[in-house]
């Protein structure tokens, strides 16, 4: 299992950038967050997880892996819509996943070249795909492409973490972008700590 890479040098940089973030990092140490480096598999799993509970999503992923062992465009294309729906996928999600799998299989979509692109270019390419919005693309920047400077304003958990860390009632886009500049060029790593803070009951 792969985890998001966090070096001690990056943590030291973030601790120097913001006193409150420094305390948060020292409280939690190195955070381990799983990543999925296979772009196609990440797309499939992100679509599966949309608008359902984590438990339900994990059940569907387990059933799908039991059915085809390896999540690949070829294996997905070879499944019927009925087989995919039988693992718990909605008709719409089946359509999204099979459309992407077919595009890759027919070489209409080259997922490998995404790694060579800048962050914004990756987002623009990903949101052209069915079922992929900006938030999903931003999450893939962090957890698939391992990009280091992502702070998603669309993510409710991140915003909750920001509000808790800085004792704010609300946080607007301007405040958010100022924080990204403070955390830059390691806003993705700061995000991991903000999620951790947001998850505390």
In short:
By secondary structure, this protein is mostly helical. The chain has helices at residues 8-17, 19-28, 39-49, 54-68, 73-77, 81-86, 91-105, 119-126, 134-143, 156-166, 173-183, 187-199.
Overview of this protein structure:
- The chain has helices spanning 8-17, 19-28, 39-49, 54-68, 73-77, 81-86, 91-105, 119-126, 134-143, 156-166, 173-183, 187-199.
- The chain has 12 helices and no strands.
- The longest helix has 15 residues, at 54-68.
- Helix 3 (39-49) packs antiparallel against helix 7 and helix 8 (119-126) packs across helix 9 (134-143).
- The protein is mainly α.
- 62% of the residues lie in helices and 0% in strands.
- The protein folds into 2 domains: 8-34 and 149-199, Endonuclease Iii, domain 2 (Orthogonal Bundle); 39-130, Hypothetical protein, domain 2 (Endonuclease III, domain 1).
């Amino acid at each position: 299992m792969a985890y998001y890479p966090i070096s001690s040098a990056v943590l030291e940089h973030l601790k120097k950038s913001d006193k409150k973030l420094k305390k948060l990092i020292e409280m939690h140490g190195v955070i381990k967050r799983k990543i999925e480096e296979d772009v196609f598999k990440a797309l499939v799993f992100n679509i599966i997880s949309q608008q359902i509970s984590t438990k339900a999503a994990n059940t569907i992923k387990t059933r799908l892996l039991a059915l085809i062992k390896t999540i690949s465009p070829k294996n997905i294309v070879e499944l019927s819509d009925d087989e995919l729906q039988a693992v718990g996928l909605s008709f719409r999600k089946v359509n999204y996943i099979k459309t992407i799998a077919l595009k890759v299989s027919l070489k209409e979509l080259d997922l490998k070249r995404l790694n060579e692109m800048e962050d914004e270019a990756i987002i623009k390419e990903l949101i052209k795909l069915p079922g992929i919005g900006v938030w999903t693309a931003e999450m893939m920047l962090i957890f698939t492409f391992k990009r280091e400077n992502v702070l998603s304003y669309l993510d409710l958990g991140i915003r909750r973490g920001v509000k808790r860390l800085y004792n704010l009632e609300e946080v607007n886009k301007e405040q958010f972008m100022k924080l990204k500049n403070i955390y830059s060029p390691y806003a993705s790593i700061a995000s991991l700590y903000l999620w951790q803070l947001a998850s505390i009951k």
